[in-house]
Design a protein that fits this description.
single chain; alpha+beta; FAD/NAD(P)-binding domain; Helicase, Ruva Protein, domain 3; 8-stranded mixed sheet; 16 helices
């Protein structure tokens, strides 16, 4: 993945692209990969960095959605369970089998959830990750040593998937390039172009060089998540909003609060939401909330109310109550939920996570809704429509069994940040041989190596310390203070690779320090 060569191709391409995708999150990258793997000339444009928004801020779960089953959305659960299985098969270096325990405190809870999870297992079929089962109070305490014991009657174990979302996004981008597609970050669509009232392409601005490009395409796909309405209004200024953004926040705490390989799932919190406590890279993620927001943002800030909600509810199920001082990082993402139909008044937790593919009169295709687990199916449905709209040759989807870049079947330690590189791992490590400056750890506590920074710049289109510390590695999301400590060395390593001067380093560090404030619990005031 080389940004300079993609810009050169954009500038020199005289023919139309077959498929132009706007948006570099899960949906956009999956759509671009589907198009490229069918042999279509494909280009993806991302206004910031890949997975900067929602797709890098999930609960890190690849799941069918136990609660959607409870809501009666059976078709979505069927679809998601199938896609969960395919993700596990196609990207074992990125997706792992995660066991979850539901602690049972009510006498009726055991039978109620046992039946529901058996249905969940049955629906997964041969793509299941393991059977659910009831466990005794003693077994529950053994697998969850820090679970609240007062009133505990037993537990239920079931299986879902867990992954590193931003790393999955980078791997999808690399897979798209492997199949002849082009992807580029920091290039923002500022206008939709038309001829005879039909969409013919876009004008996009390179945010680094402030240069505009006119890019022609047979079909343009809007896969911008919570920003989808903004792009739709470039096409039809008076069009009604279709997106109802919902904020989900997550708190990261030390593993001592849950020293277990098992995650905890609380099916019903004080307001009826689901709460997870999930082990991730030797830390624990607590989440999530579901609150409507008025306006989409690339850096949504967690509210005091949501932070307290998670701390209070998690504390009811853990022996040690987590407090604000225990929070290592707070991150917030916006779900691009399809707004309820007129007359419907649904809480965000009740709005369907199903996706919709919309086609405007001018031919702009917009994909909205959905979730990470179903990214591949969303992409398939979108490209099927694109073939029709763009009058492209009929070609079958091949992504059901398409191996994701770095595919490595060997069972590795998913708490090791190097595992996500799959078969590229040795190439990343071999960079140490080039110079003593590249040897050793950037952060011993987070197991991040200096070579990961160099690889991110050379092979993964990282352009700023934030790209590296937030998404190529997950330092910002795991421990804000540690990410700030290693930011200066990260910036200097990048400056040497990108041929940037000391002013660039200073500017980047000032900007990163300001950004990091939004991830600090101590700076979120009451």
């Amino acid at each position: 993945m080389n940004r300079k060569s993609v810009l050169k191709n954009i500038k020199e391409t005289k023919k139309k692209w077959d498929v132009l995708v706007i948006g570099g999150g899960a949906t956009g990258l999956g759509t671009a990969l589907d198009a490229a793997s069918r042999g279509f000339k494909t280009l993806l444009l991302e206004q910031h960095d890949f997975a900067k928004g929602t797709s890098g801020r999930s609960t890190k779960l690849v799941h069918g959605g136990v609660r959607y089953l409870q809501q009666g959305d059976v078709s979505l659960v069927f679809e998601a369970l199938k896609e969960r299985g395919l993700m596990f098969q196609n990207a074992p270096h990125l997706v792992r089998n995660q066991s979850f325990v539901i602690p049972i405190y009510d006498w009726w809870g055991g039978p109620f959830y046992t039946v529901g999870l058996k249905v969940y297992d049955f629906m997964a079929g041969k793509l299941g990750l393991g059977p659910s089962r009831h466990i005794s109070k003693e077994e529950t305490i053994k697998v969850l040593p820090t679970v609240e014991r007062n009133g505990l009657k037993g537990g239920l174990i079931y299986h879902d998937g867990q992954f590193d979302d931003a790393r999955m996004a980078i791997s999808l981008a690399q897979t798209c390039v492997d199949y002849g597609g082009e992807v580029i970050n920091y290039i923002k669509v500022i206008q939709v172009c038309k001829e005879k009232n039909l969409v013919t392409g876009v004008i996009a601005k390179d945010m680094e060089n402030n240069v505009d490009y006119t890019i022609n395409a047979k079909v343009v796909i809007n896969a911008t998540g919570v920003f989808a309405d903004e792009v739709r209004k470039m096409d039809e200024p008076a069009v009604k909003n279709m997106i109802s953004p919902s904020a989900g926040i997550h708190l990261v705490i030390d593993k001592s609060f849950l020293p277990s390989d098992h995650a905890v799932m609380v099916p019903q919190t004080s307001d009826g939401r689901v709460l997870f406590a999930v082990p991730w890279y030797n830390k624990v993620i607590l989440g999530t909330t579901d609150s409507l927001v008025d306006k989409p943002s690339l850096e949504p800030i967690a509210s005091d109310e949501d932070i307290d909600f998670i701390l209070n509810n998690a504390g009811q199920y853990l022996l040690k109550q987590p407090e604000r001082k225990d929070i290592l990082s707070i991150f917030s993402g916006l779900r691009p939920l399809a707004a309820p139909e007129e007359g419907e008044d649904k809480a965000t937790k009740e709005i369907s996570r199903s996706h919709k593919v919309l086609i405007s009169v001018s031919g702009l295709i917009t994909i909205i809704g959905g979730k990470w687990t179903t990214y591949r199916k969303m992409a398939e449905d979108t490209i099927e429509k694109a073939i029709m709209v763009g009058e492209l040759p009929e070609r079958k989807c091949i992504t059901h069994h398409l191996l994701i870049h770095g595919y490595n079947i060997n069972n590795a330690d998913h708490n090791d940040p190097m595992t996500v590189y799959g078969l590229d791992r040795k190439k990343v490590q071999s960079i140490e041989e080039e110079s003593d400056k590249f040897k050793g750890y950037l952060s011993e506590s987070l197991l991040i190596r200096k070579t990961q920074v160099i690889w991110a710049v050379r092979e993964e289109m990282a352009r700023s310390p934030e790209d590296v510390l937030a998404r190529r590695t997950r330092a910002l999301f795991l421990d804000v203070k540690e990410s700030l400590r290693i930011a200066p060395e990260t910036a200097q390593l990048m400056a040497n690779e990108l041929n940037r001067d000391s002013k660039w380093v200073d500017d980047q560090l000032a900007w990163y320090n300001e950004l990091a404030k939004g991830y600090f619990a101590s700076l979120v005031t009451h």
